[in-house]
Amino acid sequence: MSIDRAQKALLLTGAAAVVLGTAACATRAPVIPRDPCRTIPTDEGNSSSMSQDLALPASGAIRLPVRPGTTTYTSGFGERWGAQHQGDDLAGPVGTPILAALDGIVVAAGSSGEAPGVGFENWVIIDSNVDGTPVSTVYGHMFADGIHVTAGQRVTAGDHIADIGNAGSSTGPHLHFEYWESGRLQGGTAIDPVTVLPEIEKQGSVGTPMFVDVNQDSGVQLVSASRSTADCLGFGMAGGGELAFGIVPAEFEPWLRRAGGVCPEIDSPLLAAQLQQENNFRHGPSAPVSPSGALGPAQFMPGTWAIWGKDYDGDGKADPNSIGDAVMSQAHFMCALYQDVSTISGDRIDLTLAAYNAGPGAVQLHRGVPPYAETLNYVAKITAARATFTNPNSRGRFVPNASGDSNQVVTAAREYLGTPYVWGGGGTGGPSGGGFDCSGLTSFAVHAASAGKVSLPRTSEQQWGVGVEIPIDQARPGDLVFGSWGPNGPGHVGIYSGNGQMVHAPTTGDVVKEAPLQSGMKVRRVM
Amino acid sequence: MSFNLFNAYFDCKMEGDVRARKLVIVVLVVAVVGFLAYSCGARTDDTESSASAAPSITVDAPAAIPMAPPADVENVEPTTASRAAEETARQGLTVAFTWYPAIDATQNDAYGRARTWLTAALADRMIVDASTERGPGVQWGEWAQQEAKVIADVSVECSGCPEDTDTVVHRVATIKQSAVAGNSTETIKPDTTVWVTIVREDDRWLIDDIRY
């Protein structure tokens, strides 16, 4: 190729990048706290094949999420231990049946995206149509084997959906029950379930709640990305609410939400991060083809497409360059690969991605992620980017509220007190490899508290380059504190939590803890 | 300085066949690797002062540190041995993350060029035929078409790393890559972070593990 042609190609690539970048900006809605999801969505996209998935018949009357008399009301809605308790607690022995409170569709069932021992650990979310308005009910703290429904399943009020457990950050076996107007994953508002179900307060012999509800009138309003009724995107769809709003090119969004429901293990943020890595969301006849002939946004080889490519958009042909066909086929292929790698030890998502990149044969041959630099890089880039595409409201207990105050950084980090220190562990998505190191914890807490707006670089030395330095006597909770200085910068970072204390992941052999600041620490404000 | 040879190579418009280009690269690589190996070997004998640990050759400009440490903090100066281990990591990673997509079949070819800085175990694992049915991705193909070279700017950091011993040093590296084609340079986002184990074998520090 001549230099002239190379320059032209570069120019074209640059122009395409600008166009794509501008389009991405245009679809990214500002984060505004309000209730945008007010009516049940009937059709997400312009594809007729989607509308039938979203029919959500009106629910009958609400009923108790437990059999009367089997539990005791122990904790109410509102301020508790310095944070919002966004539901009511009903204590009962492990195994006590939990019942659906409303008719609806299960949109999440299983891990709440938090680590073992953190938050709810496991949850069920049921999206319901209550007189034409969207309502989600949330059930938390069950053990993994105490969940009896799967995402996508339709349930009727009174169905036995799960059993009371003691998983996550729980002080004893109980059901944590929430009621959200305008959709849990859509950035709606938690209200006290007692206001719609007064019987909750009468459960058990205690009679009066152990915790005084100081905030009964004001609902908890979450950060929501707000774009007219489009914000109901994902309501009532299994796995459909996990993708951040407006984060992918608009034409991909409805398909990615739908693809997230193909199997519970492969979610839409993962598929989105993969599409970014594969072909940066380029699609259509002009989408670049790889040197070996891989096609379209999901880069299917013709032979693989012949097996997995289907006509999901209903236009009469299976086209690897079309968004709907490619994204849905990608999800089905990934779900199958996830099953393929089940006999190999290691992180199954990593192995699944490696199988997609290098072929299932390579993963089988090497009994793990093959030692191919491109594949190692592919897996690392996608797993790191996954959090960027994740709806900040889709994590179990910690959800950033609309005020955006930096105190939430401390709240997010405190969720993980006691989690082991693992050098190289953690990142914007939470712990990894069994824990956090210092900068992994700060990456997670700042990303979660800023509703995904602030992604810190991964190391403490690089994090020192973000934000502005603040005199230590003006530090406020949520600022980052740096120490262990070396010639390349600070070897340690923590989160200032007030009164001369910080939350940090100290060192190998230790756990995430709250401790006094070290001498000589410097402060930076990053959000 | 040594890698300017590669720049010079890429600056000149090559119309020759791939075989000739490969030969040129091989010759250059042998020269560079030999020179660097010689320099490293010479330097590990030199344990007198930290000043003498300054590399006598430059693999690449020292990685951009986002912000120098404040003047009023007490720096913990690493030992000469730790600095030597860090220098091995920086040089080895710079070579392992510098790619020539027009010539390299896969990214593992760069590990072959970095052989001098790797233990036998890591070399055995990474210097393999990594070609797959799908082959390299779209981006790699675009770089190859542009005859771009991908250069790596490596910053060796600690970020809570375990304490150094006489024989094992752990570091994390932030690698900023740029694709250079003709007169244009494009920063590759995002940065790559790898966790590295450097071990002492006889009198040399070698990279024993690179975890993505």
The span between the termini of chain A is 47 Å
Summarize model confidence as the mean pLDDT of chain B.
79
Main beta-sheet annotation of chain B: 5 strands, antiparallel
User: Oligomer, anyone?
Assistant: heterodimer
Structurally, the number of domains of chain B stands at 2
pLDDT under 50 segments of chain B (min length 5)? 1-18, 32-65
Mean pLDDT of chain A: 87
Strand content of chain A: 15-25%
Largest interface: A-B, 68 and 59 residues
Largest sheet of chain A, in brief, is: 9 strands, antiparallel
Structural class of chain A: alpha+beta
Query: Could you give the count of β-strands of chain A?
Result: 19
Give the number of helices of chain B: 6
The number of helices of chain A is 12
The CATH C-level name of the largest domain in chain B is Alpha Beta
Number of beta strands of chain B? 5
Distance between the termini of chain B: 28 Å
From the 3D structure, determine the CATH topology of the largest domain in chain B: Nuclear Transport Factor 2, Chain: A
Quickly give the CATH architecture of the largest domain in chain B.
Answer: Roll
- In helices, the fraction of residues of chain A equals 10-25%
Protein described:
The complex is a heterodimer of chains A (527) and B (212). Chain A is α+β, with helices and mostly antiparallel strands. In chain A, 24% of the residues lie in helices and 18% in strands. In chain A, strands 1, 4, 6, 7, 8, 9, 11, 12 and 13 form a 9-stranded antiparallel sheet that branches. A 6-stranded antiparallel sheet of chain A has the order 14-19-15-16-17-18. Chain A has a two-stranded antiparallel ribbon with strand order 2-3. Mean pLDDT of chain A is 87; it is low at 10-35, 44-53 and 207-230. Chain B folds into 2 domains: 1-50; 80-211, Nuclear Transport Factor 2, Chain: A (Roll). In chain B, 35% of the residues lie in helices and 21% in strands. Chain B contains 6 helices and 5 strands, in the order H-H-H-H-H-H-E-E-E-E-E. In chain B, strands 1, 2, 3, 4 and 5 form a 5-stranded antiparallel sheet that branches. In chain B, a hairpin with a 2-residue loop joins strand 2 (168-181) and strand 3. The interface between A and B is large, with 68 and 59 residues.
